[in-house]
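As a point of orientation, let us examine one representative protein, giving the amino acid sequence and backbone structure tokens.
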Amino acid sequence: MPMYISGYVISNDETYIIDTALFDTGASSANYISQSYVDKYIDIFEPYILAHNSSVRLGDSTTEVLITHIITLNISFLDTCSITHEGLLNFSIMKMSIDMIIGIESILFTFYELILDMLRAAKTRQSSHFNLTL
């Protein structure tokens, strides 16, 4: 089951909505942010963008995407108990349909408590969907 959440980028005491972040436990340790999301806030994000030269192989195991820029951003998510979880993360910028992908390293070391909360909420939803007793 994919784990999606919305949140915020925090920069200079301003917040910018992240509509969709995928917590991808199967991804590499890297984090990714969509080029269109960066372009939307380019005036704010430009000072945080650095040239970078790497590539990533996508989940289909054949497609390889060139990464030419990275960005460091402070991001924030709210869990089901209204607890804020923040992290300063590096993102590879690439074209994709969702705002960002959070990789396993950031999940384990920055957003561990948040992913546990997300899993508990998913278990509760699935249990009620299948009429299971917890």
